[in-house]
Amino acid sequence: VQRDLNVAVAEFTELKQQLERDTLVLSILKKLQEFDTAIKEYNTALLEKKYVAAAHQLDKARSCLKMLESRKGFELKILKALGVELTVQTQNMLYHLGEEWQKLATWKLPPSKESSSLESVMHSELHLRTVPPKGEDIAGPPLASVLQAFAVLGELHTKLKIFGQLLLKYILKPLISYPSLQPLTEEQSDVFVLRFKSEEPSLDHSSPMEVFDKIKLIFEVLHKYLLNVPLDQPVEDKKEHRVTLAQLLGDMIWEELSDCLIQNCLVNSIPTNSSKLEQYIEVIKSTEEFEEALKNMQFLKGDTTDLLKYARNVNSHFANKKCQDVIVAARNLMTSEIHNTVKITPDSSVALPKLPHPAAGDHLKMQETSKLLRNDTENLENETKLSQYTFSLPSCRISSSVEKLMELAYQTLLEATASTDQCCIQLFYSVRNIFQLFYDVVPTYHKENLQKLPQLAALHHNNCMYIAHHLLTLGHQFRYRLTNILCDGAATFVDLVPGFRRLGMECFLAQMRVQKGEILERLSSARNFSNMDDEENYCAANKAIRQVLHQLKRLGKVWQDVLPVNVYCKAMGTLLNTALSEIVTRIAALEDISAEDADRLYSLCKTMVEEGPQVFTPLPEDDKNKKYQEEVPVYVQKWMMFKELMIILQANLQEIVDQWADGKGPLAAEFSAAEVKSLIRALFQNTERRAAALAKIK
Known about the structure:
This protein is an alpha+beta fold. The chain is built from 28 helices and 8 strands. The protein has a 4-stranded antiparallel sheet with strand order 1-2-4-3. Strands 5-6 form a two-stranded antiparallel sheet. Strands 7-8 form a two-stranded antiparallel ribbon. It is elongated, with a radius of gyration of 48 Å.
């Protein structure tokens, strides 16, 4: 019994395995049959142009093949052949669908690759088929049939992406970028043509309303003839999900289209003046209407997009744009030529905007109180009053670009007073940025000219002083008219004043050092003023003196009417003093001066004394300059010393002793005893009289 039982179990196991094998073979054969049937039905449907049915059959065949390939242990050679056949048939169908798609939507593009110019864009056309050609019996609308077939085969996304990119490149973006471009629609018997015409634009940029209307027209046409097609889209949970072609296309191109509309349309429409901000409500309204129209055509989903957010956030964009424009305008002024000048006098002032009265309240009461106090105490005032020009900038010339820069600062602050709090703060700090930019840009951009040209160095000095002068009161003037956040002492520019004064002085002092160096270099060719009885030496010294005077006269002319008179006189006085000091040092160092040497040295010094004051010409009117030429000893420290040297060169021993007057005379005020003794030893021979004279110099 045990043996029979074992035999029966073995037979049962074998039969069971055989049954499983047969069942598996049967299921594989069934799948192969299904694949074959699907391919046959696909061919039939394709011949009848039933594209959706054909696509479904191909999809069915694909799923059969996947099932067969997933069976391990049954690697049939036929599967490879079936795979090749399926690929061939899929490509065949895609070719047919492509042909149909080209009939439905035909592009006529510019011949050249350059599509950016207006002329090439004018050649772009889109032809949309409106009715199926006669004699073709298609189940359902041809458009829906073709697109649904693409969707089933998973190729719709690719086709739509190509169409969307062409639409953006050749129709939508040009309409946004070129104000003169207008869409032109033409409906023919079986085709709808979309092309362009060019009109003379009234403005450089189209208004958002005009652009939205153009784009809306394009989408209405596409919606009517192409995009209003519901499609069955398989999603992850395998349920059918119906969407329209408009939704799919919208998902693909909206982000890029939205960016283009913002950058090339809305950005240009942001007002540059706060008074125009209220009118911007129209733009926001038209943006809302534009988006609503696209949502109705199912091109857009229900959420608020970046486009509308950008339009609604106009205050922030206005502030950013205004600040950017201000900085760009300021930088253009800073990099313009310095030498175009305007005259500034104590009577002149920057074209100040008319500021409104401070807000009613404490400030107004304070003004009224101060008026009453003034009236009551008028008779107590000191009779001596300060000049009305005490705190004025002295007469000088500044660059016209700097005057415009200050006007820009005032106008921007005035704009800030009429803006929202956030915008007010941004504009205020933009004005501060203007001055910080000046501090960094001008000395660097004009560096070479400021070093080489004395007049430009003087102008830059004046420009810096002019800006510093206005910065002292600029914040105070607007203090009560800016937002509360800035009213508590933050609205100030006074901290920038020392930096600007230093910037102007450093540049001018650097130029003074250059001029001093040139004077000393010229005097170095005077051969130390020794052996003047030698004609060659005398000519060299005379030439050096003449060159120095010529240099000073040239400087006197280029700085004339540019520098304030007091700065001019100090500068010219310092340079003339450098020359005189060097001459005195060289002559005082001589060990031997003959009578002829002394005469010639005297004539050279006389040239300096006679022509030196003539370099002081701070004003264009000659008769007004005499006053400053007479005041030369005030500005030239070594002037009296130089004149005393001239007296020594012509005096006898007794006269020198008299000038010394036991250390109390005019000579003692300018020279030390050692220097006078040295000059006496150089000028006079060693005699008892000289020894007596030297004994008195102590």
